[in-house]
């Protein structure tokens, strides 16, 4: 199979996972392990976190709602402190940046597909400076849930990304750190790689693409 494009998740793939920040916040705040993840999962599509990532809530609205969800579950969460922890751990992984540059140098198109959120009082996604100044130069296409109004794992957002890259799903490799986000990608024909160990994921990607992803 000859692939024409590679799509990367951001947090957990190109950058460290926000789940690491969840675990650190839980430890600092004296919350049970996985408390925040369980709140997000329990909320489902109608929960505060999903609504934030679809652009239906701004950060102030989200903070009130999510803090209330946590309080109802018996925990105290300060959203501003939680998000500061997430932002402080969002530096890109150098090996991923090198791999993306190598992929583009081989003539393939590269996209980013991320669940994110708007900042308060502006129609701007989170990490707006990083997105515009860094990711905008690194990727051919950046698709953000808060702008599209749809989030992974909804199949529509994968289709949007492929359309903007002008490729079919079967010509595409998708990398994400969450299995729930990979399943719908596979269902529409994408090759998928689960990123648990970044080095192993890049080795798997290099094997699929049939060229080195390391610096020349």
Q: What is this entry, summarized?
A:
This protein has 216 residues and is of the alpha/beta class.
Overview of this structure, please?
With 216 residues, this protein is of the alpha/beta class. It has two domains: 5-16 and 91-209, Rossmann fold, CATH 3.40.50; 18-88, DNA polymerase, domain 1 (Orthogonal Bundle). Helix content is 51%, strand content 11%. A five-stranded parallel beta sheet has the order 3-2-1-4-5, with helices on both faces. Helix 10 (179-187) links the parallel strand 4 (172-176) and strand 5 (191-194). Helix 1 crosses helix 5 (79-88). The longest helix has 14 residues, at 59-72. The chain is globular and about 50 Å long.
Mean of all residue-level pLDDT scores: 92
CATH superfamily of the largest domain: HAD superfamily/HAD-like
CATH architecture name of the largest domain? 3-Layer(aba) Sandwich
Give the domain tally.
2
Largest pleated sheet? 5 strands, parallel
Termini gap: 24 Å
Based on secondary structure, the structural category is: alpha/beta
Order of helices and strands: EHHHHHHEHEHHEHEH
Helix content: 40-55%
Strands, count: 5
Number of helices, where a helix is a run of at least 4 consecutive DSSP H or I residues: 11
**Strand residue percentage:** 5-15%
């Amino acid at each position: 199979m000859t692939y024409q494009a590679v799509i990367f998740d951001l947090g957990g793939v190109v950058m460290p996972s926000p789940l690491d920040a969840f675990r650190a916040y839980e430890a600092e705040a004296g919350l049970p392990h996985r408390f925040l993840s369980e709140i997000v999962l329990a909320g489902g599509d109608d929960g505060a976190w999903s609504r934030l990532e679809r652009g239906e809530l701004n950060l102030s609205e989200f903070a009130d709602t999510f803090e209330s969800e946590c309080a109802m579950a018996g925990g105290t969460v300060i959203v501003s402190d939680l998000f500061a922890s997430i932002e402080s751990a969002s530096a890109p992984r150098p090996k991923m940046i090198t791999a993306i540059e190598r992929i583009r140098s081989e003539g393939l198109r590269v996209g980013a597909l991320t669940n994110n959120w708007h900042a308060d009082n502006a129609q701007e996604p989170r990490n707006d400076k990083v997105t515009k100044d860094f990711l905008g130069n690194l990727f051919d296409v950046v698709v953000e849930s808060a702008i599209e109004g749809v989030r992974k794992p909804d199949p529509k957002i994968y289709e949007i990304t492929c359309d903007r890259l002008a490729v079919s799903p079967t010509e595409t490799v998708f990398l994400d750190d969450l299995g729930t986000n990979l399943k719908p990608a596979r269902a529409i024909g994408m090759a998928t790689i689960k990123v648990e160990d970044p080095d192993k994921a890049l080795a798997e990607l290099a094997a699929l693409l049939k060229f080195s992803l390391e610096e020349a």
